[in-house]
Amino acid sequence: MGSYFDGSQSGPYFDGSQSGPLAGDPRMSGRVPGAAGGPSFMGLQTSSFTDFLASHSPGLLPGRVVPSVPAEPDPRAPGSGFQAVRDLPHATTIVAAVCHGGVVLAGDRRATAGNMIAKRDVEKVFRSDEFSGMGYAGTGSVGIEFVRLFQVELEHYEKMEGRSLSLEGKANRLAWMVRGNLAAAMQGLVVVPLFVGYDEDTDLGRIFSYDVAGGPYEEQRFYSIGSGSLFARGALKKLYVDDMPVGDAALACVQALYDAADDDSATGGPDLPRRIFPVIASITADGFRKLSDAEGAQIAEQVVQERLTRPDGPAAALRNS
Is 284 among the catalytic positions? Predict the structure, then answer.
């Protein structure tokens, strides 16, 4: 059975336009009438868990329950909804770099609330399924909901269809979920993910970025999101080499996060006294692998040690050899 999200079927699935046993009244949107004549709980014939949840408990979806905010809130008012949203913990910088046979994803650990540090040890890099992962920047609580819902979404699709989505299909599915949060984003609850994965068809790592209205946009070689993204991308421009090994790509990502933390107060660098280091993951033909605390500490300590003698980081070659 094809899927709208992996490009093998045009138009919405189960919208009544299909022939065969799944054909039906398009007004039912894929629902099978229950005993009482209405849609039954198990009657929604869809491979999308998000659609299933929306049909029965839409309030559980991220961004669907948003506190009312005045049309023109005064940001100086301590009790205003606008101020409350602004003071929620926000995750910051995520970087990704394509490497030999896969892709590396890394994120700093700081979360900020306004001009304060809310948490120092937040994890923003997660496994989506065996061959993909994501990081997020924006409102922390909403971002975690997105991560969990997307994980279930991919598992549900695989169980219903008997196969996993293609990497592009996963990226499109995530874009649809991001677009569903647009109303909440307009009130300040913004979440922007960075999705990466290993493409089994091409044996390559791929990176997809988003905006608050969806996407996806495929990025080449490397990319970064969050408040320190400009500084991180600037660093990667000088450090990145095509087809670099996984270890070198992880080192380049941590160097980029260090540069971002050097110029952006909302991005946290390696915290040696507290033993808090960036979260790093690689996704290759062997699947998703999150580096252990010891491995992450080794890379971060190497970067910090080198910065003692060269505070601005490694120097790029001025001329090509």
Answer: no
